[in-house]
Amino acid sequence: MTKQKVMQAILQCNERGDKAFVPYIMAGDGGLQTLKKNILFLQEAGAAAIEVGIPFSDPVADGEVIQQAGERALTEGVTLRKVMAELASFKEEVTVPLVIMTYLNPILSYGLQAMAADCENSGVYGLIVPDLPLEESGLLKSALEGTDIALIQLVSLTSPAERINAIAEAAEGFIYAVTVNGITGVRDSFTEGLEDHLERLKAASSVPVLAGFGISTPEHVRSLGALADGVIVGSAIVSAFHEGDLPTIRTLIDASKNQVSQI
Ligand SMILES: O=P(O)(O)OC[C@@H](O)[C@@H](O)c1c[nH]c2ccccc12
Description:
Elements: H1 5-15, E1 20-26, H2 34-45, E2 50-53, H3 64-75, H4 80-89, E3 98-101, H5 104-110, H6 112-120, E4 124-128, H7 138-143, E5 150-155, H8 161-170, E6 175-178, H9 194-204, E7 209-212, H10 218-227, E8 230-233, H11 235-243, H12 246-254
The protein binds indole-3-glycerol phosphate.
């Protein structure tokens, strides 16, 4: 079965003339009870899908902001199991597809089949597992077979052409085009070759291409959005939630829309 839900949510945005905006949140930063509130806020503010990060003790790809948010959530006792149960408890209210971002270990200890079943029961339509390369993804892929849960692949700036093609061929949901070399977090500028890179990715891929890493201002959302089908914003969203700065989140999301709302 082809994976439809996440891809359709992005395509629907694009058909309206908007870029897809996918915010990343750290589940349980500020306590597990913030999860529902934050998801419903982002949904209402116009997110196309929401990337829900699971706190983890060894988050190798995470920059400072996400790491600290993860530590706060771990202090609150948040685990993958608790997040899945919490998501299931309010899934009727969630209309945007959720994508879980977690490292491989928590999924393995959860159990691949149990994870697939609980995703289906919690409004989760995608998984991002940054430490699981395409070549190793067979077991998880088969656990997700017959579900509408996409295994989303990351492509780095340094991926060679054959690898880009292999990933594009296997891609489900969307391709996560990492726009900087290194870890997550706010950046001032992007590399010059980015436009060509995203152009090549879009040409190779039959699913949408979203740009993520280092996108933190409305200007970034507009300029990177123009080169892709949408953007993923993590650190800036996590910081804004931590500081209770909801207007900043709205402004970022509005920048992905054709019709920027009047202030
Ligand atoms: O924080 P940034 O630079 O806006 O990047 C998004 C990112 O945080 C989110 O998608 C993410 C958080 N942790 C990750 C690990 C790997 C890949 C992606 C992620």
